[in-house]
Amino acid sequence: MISTNEFKTNVTVKIDGDAWQVVEFQHVKPGKGAAFVRAKMRNLCTGSVVERTFNAGERLPKAHIDRREMQYLYEGDGVYNFMDNENYEQVELSKEQLGAATNFLKENMDVKIM
């Protein structure tokens, strides 16, 4: 379990059965009332980004994400191809799934993929 007070960029939590990644967060302490955390979160299954508000100190289950070392091979028709360095299995990811990371990819570079 992770507290919303411990949010950091790229922390992954499980909400309603889906894995969510914290993109941005802000701890807000209004003059009147209880503190809260406003977070912009990306659904790792669908890629959608939403803004959510949590009570300060609320506890959420941490999502355990498998990260793999892969090699970027090439891009074709908006699909980016990667190869697993351990078993040589190839994986295709869309531009929507990769987001701004597509601007930094070079052929044959090693990357970590979730």
From TrEMBL:
SMART domains: EFP (SM01185). CDD domains: S1_EF-P_repeat_1. It comes from the Bacteria. The keyword Protein biosynthesis applies. SUPFAM superfamilies: Nucleic acid-binding proteins, Translation proteins SH3-like domain. Keywords: Elongation factor, Protein biosynthesis. One of its GO terms (cellular component) is cytoplasm. Residues 67-114 form the Translation elongation factor P/YeiP central domain. Signal peptide: none annotated. InterPro entries: NA-bd_OB-fold (IPR012340), Rib_uL2_dom2 (IPR014722), Transl_elong_fac_P/YeiP (IPR020599), Transl_elong_KOW-like (IPR013185), Transl_elong_P/YeiP_cen (IPR001059), Translation_prot_SH3-like_sf (IPR008991). One of its GO terms (molecular function) is translation elongation factor activity. Pathway: Protein biosynthesis; polypeptide chain elongation. The keyword Nuclease does not apply. Pfam families: EFP, EFP_N. Belongs to the elongation factor P family. Involved in peptide bond synthesis. Stimulates efficient translation and peptide-bond synthesis on native or reconstituted 70S ribosomes in vitro. Probably functions indirectly by altering the affinity of the ribosome for aminoacyl-tRNA, thus increasing their reactivity as acceptors for peptidyl transferase. This is Elongation factor P. It comes from Candidatus Avacidaminococcus intestinavium.
